[in-house]
# Entry
Amino acid sequence: MPYRKLPRSFYDRATLEVAPDLLGKYVVYHPPRGKIVSRVIEVEAYIGQDDPACHASRGLTPRTRPMFGPPGRTYIYFIYGMYYCLNFVTESEGSPAAVLLRAAELVEGRQAISLPPKAGRDDPYPLSGPGKFCRALGLTTDQNDLDLTGDVIYLQDRNGETVNIQQSCRIGINVGTARRWRFYDGNSGAVTRPRQARRKG
DNA sequence: TGAATGATGCGCT
DNA sequence: GCGCATCATTCAT
# Structure
């Protein structure tokens, strides 16, 4: 194992420290068959009950429970009737916060991911988009609240590759857009682009 | 090339 | 019932 698996202490920090630090890290997922490795390109921070865009702003519910739990676990939710989104829980237990994985570059395991039925066979960035990422890896709520320091899904440190860290407003939400809590690698083509009607810079 | 829309189901009011 | 941390397709220019 050439790289270090990120320990729980990595996630047990201020979310705005963890989010940009995640860029360039490797997400390793071991489904029952195969192994998929991808490189984190784009993330967004959702922090606390005072952030109106954060699911935790409506309080503790069965759905948002993982965000209120200890750091270093997954928070996967179902949205728009057909998509799942993967988050990494940060900050100490009782402090609800998480980082949404918005885009990644496929590094290893192309044969193990599932592509959309029609288009996308030659998509150079099959993990570009939070919904696309989870669909490709087959992540569902079955993988919700999983320990990120275990062997099923975890992150690895990068190997000193340069990351061009950029920052902007969050995408795809209608509240809390003033917070510049989106971080991405400006050197990667896998970065997602906001829809015109939602463009906020 | 860009904007509008349909698919689709769950959590919460 | 409504809105949603989305995406692919369709339609208009």
About this structure: The first helix of chain A runs from residue 8 to 11. The first strand of chain A starts at residue 26 and ends at 29. Strands of chain A lie at 26-29, 36-47, 74-79, 83-89, 97-108, 153-156, 165-168, 182-185.
